[in-house]
Amino acid sequence: MKVFVSGANGQFANSVIRHVLSHGRADALVVGTRNVDTAFARELVAAGVDVRRADFREPALMVEALRGVDRALFIPTYDPNTVRLQQNLNAIEAARKAGVAHIVYASFLNVESPLVEHSRLVHFPTEQALRESGLGFTILRHALYADTIVGDLQETLGTGVLRRPGGAARIAYLARQDLGLSAALVLLSDGLNGRVFSETMDRTYSGSDIAAAMTEVFGRPVRYEAVPVEDWPRYMTEKWGLPEELARSVKGTATALAAGEFDIVSPDYREITGKSARTLEQFLGDLKQDS
Description:
There is one protein chain. This protein is an alpha/beta fold. The protein has 13 helices and eleven strands. It has helices at 11-22, 39-46, 59-65, 81-98, 117-132, 153-159, 176-187, 207-218, 232-240, 244-249, 251-258, 268-273, 280-290; strands at residues 3-5, 29-33, 50-53, 71-74, 102-108, 136-142, 144-145, 161-164, 173-174, 196-199, 223-226. The strands form three sheets. Strands 3-2-1-4-5-6-10 form a seven-stranded parallel β-sheet, with helices on both faces. α4 links the parallel β4 (71-74) and β5. α3 (59-65) packs across α4 (81-98) and α8 crosses α13 (280-290). The two termini are 37 Å apart.
């Protein structure tokens, strides 16, 4: 069986790929990327992985990239939401033409929310298209990446202030590394056709909970300060360098967070992997140890 992972140079794909390799399945792995000349792509070639140029914007290229593949993990690009649905549809149709039997799709938690732009414009209609495609499918609805909590960790620890939207609302998180493990296991497994998994930690966290966990793990006092929803896009642009169009699109997500739409706990991650996801404290502790 040949399995395919798209967006190989991305952080989530990187985690999936490394977990597949840790299971000794380099011979079964095909990866697609727009840039086959990166250091990571060359590392994969050296490890015996079949690296192919693939681009959701180019349907014919996708068909060739998927030749001989049995199961494919499609990870949406970070292009604007206005074009990502068509990209996903291109990939699904290319899979059908190439003879792929099963698609695993990386979606988003509470995908029905009308407030979240990337769910409304991309993930929800992509899920519907998969159901109507005639192909086998498994959908992985991801919680918010725990990694986003620490994107500005040094500033947070230096100022003693964690600034995020959401207020007192509790939010579901899961780390990319953990999600990479579950996606790899699903990709390598049979018997999950038509399944939809919502992947979260075993509890949700408020901003104050996260600040308390940082205080405990890093030994520095951290308090939480809510960023108003309307200010969050500017914060992401100025502090994180996120493109303005992408930053604007997360305003609806921040609104949904504050409304409690992501206060969701699911046992699905444990069902896939046979173990609980790392807690936030464990995630932070591992980050401290690795730094």
